[in-house]
Amino acid sequence: MSKAVPPIQRVKEKKKFDVSQFQEIYEFDTILPGCGEPVRFRPLTTGQIKKVLAFENEENPMVISELMNTLIKEVVINDIDVHEIFLKDRAFLLWEMRNKSKGTRWETQYTCEKCKSQNLLVTDLSKFTIKNLDLHNVEYIIDIFPGLQLEMKFLKVIDELESLNFINAKMSDSQKQAELTVVLHAAGINKIIKGDEIFEDLSLSDRKYFIEEMPTVVYESISNWYKENDYGVDFTIEHKCTSCGNVMKFEGSPDSFFL
To answer: Hey, what long-range contacts does 27-32 have (CB within 8 A, 24 or more apart)?
Structure first.
C-alpha cells in the first residue's frame, strides 16, 4: 500500500522592502542659473555612485556626457528634458547633486608642474561662485561686418551631443579637442543675417563651414559673446604647492567631483 503524498507547502514570497518612504525625506529644490527653471531632485544613491566609479578611467566625452544625462534623469523628480536644458545648467545641476549626495569636501592629488612634488588638493565645493543669467537682458545679435550679423543661442545638452557625434572618431585626442571647440562655436549660431537675407535652419556642417571659411573675427566674436553672457558655476580652483609655493590653477568638472 503506497503512502499518501503530503500536500505541497507553498512558501509565501517575502515582500520586497520598500525604501521609497525613506528617499522622500531627501528631496532638494534648486533654480537653474541659466534658464531660471526650478528643479526638484533626490541625491544619488550609493548604487548610482558605484555606477559612476565604474567609469573612472573613461576618456570618451560622449560616454561621459550620456552617463551624466542618465544620472540626472534618474534623480530629478519634476518634469524636465535633460537634452533641452542649457549646457552650463547641467553642470550646475550635477554640482548640486554631488554636494547633496557626497557632501561638499573634495580632494585629489596632483603633481606640481614646477618642482614635480606631490600635493593633496582639498576643496570645499560649496565655496564656488555662481553667476545667474538674466535672459531678458541678453542681446542675441552680433554685428560682424556692415551688412553681416549673427543671431546667437545658448548651447543646450542636445547641441553638445550633436557636436560630439560630428567629430571624426579617427582623430587624435588633440585634434578632437580642437575640432570640438570649433563645432561648439558653430552650434551656437542660430541665424546668419546678410542685409535683408536671413539664413536659418542651417545644418551643423554648414555653420562649421561658415566659421572656417570666414576671417577669424567671426570665431572671436562668438567667443566674446559667450564670455559676456557667461553664467553657471565657476569651477576654477587655485592651489599653492606645499614644497615650492608655486600657484596652479585647475578647471574642475562636475563629473570628476563624483570620483
So the answer is: 27/77, 28/96, 28/100, 30/92, 30/93, 30/96, 32/85, 32/86, 32/89, 32/92, 32/93
DSSP assignment of 180-239 = HHHHHHHHTEEEEEETTEEEES--HHHHHHHHHHS-HHHHHHHHHHHHHT--EEE-EEEE
pLDDT value at residue 170: 84
Average pLDDT, the chain: 90
Encoded amino acid at 148, one letter = L
Where along the chain do its domains lie?
20-131+232-257, 139-228
Class level of CATH domain 139-228: alpha beta
pTM of structure: 0.86
Please report the pLDDT score of residue 96 as a whole number.
96
Task: Decide: helix, strand or coil at residue 28.
Answer: strand
| Nine-digit cell string for 115 | 618642482
Q: What angle do CA 77, 83, 88 make, to 5 degrees?
A: 90
Cell output for 12: 509565501
**Which ranges constitute the DSSP H helices of the chain?**
20-23, 46-53, 61-75, 87-102, 157-166, 173-187, 204-213, 216-228, 254-257
Spatial neighbors of 72 by CB under 8 A, at least 6 apart, are 41, 82, 90, 93, 94, 97
